[in-house]
Amino acid sequence: MEFTLDATSNNARACTIKTAHSTIKTPVFMPVGTVGSVKSLDMEDVVDILGAEIILANTYHMYLRPGDKTVAKMGKLHKFTTFPKSFLTDSGGFQAFSLSSMTKHKENGIEFRSHIDGSKHLFTPSKVIDIQNNLGSDIMMILDDLVALPATQERIALSIDRTTKWAQESIGYHKENQAKGIGTEQNIFAIIQGGTDKAFRTKSATELCALTDYDGFAIGGLSVGEANQDMYDTVEHTVQYMPKDKPRYLMGVGTPEDLIENVERGIDMFDCVMPTRNARNGTLFTSFGKINIKGAKFKEDELPIDPECTCLTCKRYTRSYMNHLIRAKELSYFRLATIHNLHYYLNLMREVREAILEDRFAEFKTEFYKKRS
Q: What positions does UniProt annotate as the active site of this protein (predicted)?
């Protein structure tokens, strides 16, 4: 991985990340393709219409179905899915934690039962790297010990200790593999934990960022029910302990407002299911806020979803037509709505980058909120 810090505007950063498969300009929003597919879209939509340079796939889901060994036999993620750009794979620890009622966090990993057939599995630090080596992702996330909030001080402390221990095991194993010619084009990120407690975040960030062989660092365990301001304060506190010469990734966040606030605090990379999930449920993002396209007021509305938007959907279709499609449960609605929401997110980050390069991010943020008021 090559990383360049191109410009700053106060704490907001514009960077360039080069992997074996693409050049990623940050700040960047990464569409979520959990099982190797962005829901309701094909890869022509993702590459040619949206212009995404990086998307996510999930280790837990790809491990269970179709199986990481199957993906490896089919040419790994890039060939299997035909997405030619970069993949980031999450470790699967969050899914093992959230989708299984039988999860057990142990000293050596996370034991869980498949949400598909109930079979028992164990994710260890080395196991999730083996899976991600088979998947062939450009960026691999390590296994971390995530806890739900609120949690006791003792449980959060244990989470940090395990996360650091597993991070040490992971980077050592990854480097051993690379010496054997395995995963030589793959990069590895560690995940900072600690809830919203600043002392815990300091401890976790300090311990993990001391592991200098990591290619980047993520902030995990946020956007799990805490107040927005608590999230922002935690991010602002944590980034001061993160290297300036490596990517900073805030996992699972969030709304357009969350992206703007956390770019302001120095975050480079984001992902969230919100734009795709909300699209399917009728909530569409616009420059002036959200709308629910199911609303009766849109039945005879001749405007596009967002008059300022240049996406395929807005250039061709009206709110009236989109209202009709979702009410009729027409399958084409899901594609058109998803294209619009993802275009909005990706374009927002492109505009943010331009503002940072021109050192006018503060003005951009003011205008962003002014339109919403």
A: 90 (proton acceptor), 271 (nucleophile)
90 has binding-site annotation: yes
Q: Please report, for the chain, the start and end positions of each structural domain, with discontinuous segments joined by +.
A: 2-271, 274-372
Give catalytic status of residue 6 as yes or no.
Answer: no
Q: What b/e string do you get for 35-53 counting C-beta neighbours within 10 Å, with b at 16 or more?
A: ebebbbbebebbbebbebb
**Residue 309 among known ligand-binding residues:** yes
Quick check: pTM over 0.70? yes
Tell me if 58 sits within 8 A of 273, measured CB to CB: no
209 annotated ligand-binding residue? no
Under 8 Å CB-to-CB from 201, ≥6 apart: which residues? Answer: 192, 194, 195, 234, 237, 238, 241
For residue 35, the number of C-alpha atoms closer than 13 Å in the C-beta half-sphere is 8
Q: Which of 90, 145, 215, 306 is catalytic?
A: 90
Q: State CA 132 to chain mean position distance.
A: 16
Cα–Cα distance for residue pair 362/354, rounded to 1 Å: 12
Q: Please, what is the Cα angle at 33 between 64 and 281, to 5 degrees? A: 110
Superfamily (CATH) of domain 2-271 = Queuine tRNA-ribosyltransferase-like (3.20.20.105)
| Residue 179: pLDDT band with limits 50, 70, 90 | very high
301 in catalytic set: no
SS3 state at 146: coil
In this prediction, residue 14 carries a pLDDT of 99
